[in-house]
Amino acid sequence: MTTTTAPTGTGVAPILRRLYVVRFGFALAWAVLLFATASSIGPASAALLVLYPAFDVAAAVVDARSSRAGGSAAGLYVNIVISALAAVALAVALTSGIPAVLRVWGVWAVLAGIVQLVVAVRRRRLGGQWAMIASGSISVLAGASFVLMAATAASLTNVAGYALFGGVFFLVSALRLRR
């Protein structure tokens, strides 16, 4: 009989390392594609904008499954809900234009950044979490700036830059996690 158990604290690091590398690769590819379509909302940019938080949901599910024993799963479940709601809200905001998208993206970035910060602080013994702490903090600030720039912005290039920058933090964290 095969049993499935949550990995121990030492078993979480390799899983997180792989997940963080995948998240970096996704963020890099996503940002390149959004940079190419960021001047307006078309089918490609719309799909990308909804895909990003949906991917965040999937990544948080994988992370939560591997982190049950580490005490960070509760924050990840909160992130799953926040990101799922963001995907739906972005799908609705797309019909109202770039300013509405920036407002929704900004609120999501603030909330997800707070959750990322809390989860990273709880995981700091794994190593490499300073990058996630910085990323969560920057996400809160960037989210607030997206909400403010919604009054004047006519492009989504800053969103692409935000995702790319966040992806780099995932890569740094992956490289710094203890073995």
What can you tell me about this protein's structure?
The protein is built from six helices and no strands. With 179 residues, it is mostly helical. It has one domain. Helix 3 packs antiparallel against helix 4, helix 4 (98-122) packs antiparallel against helix 5 and helix 5 runs antiparallel to helix 6. The longest helix has 29 residues, at 9-37. Mean pLDDT is 88; it is low at 1-9.
Count of alpha/pi helices = 6
% residues in beta strands: under 5%
Spans of at least 5 consecutive residues with low confidence: 1-9
Main pleated sheet: none
Number of domains in the coordinates? 1
Give a count of the beta strands, DSSP E runs of length 2 or more: 0
Gross morphology: globular
N-C termini distance: 29 Å
Question: Would you tell me the overall average pLDDT?
Answer: 88
User: Which quaternary structure do these chains form?
Assistant: single chain
Share in helix: over 70%
| Structural class by SSE content | mainly alpha
- Reading the helices and strands in chain order gives HHHHHH
Report the radius of gyration as a whole number of Å: 16 Å
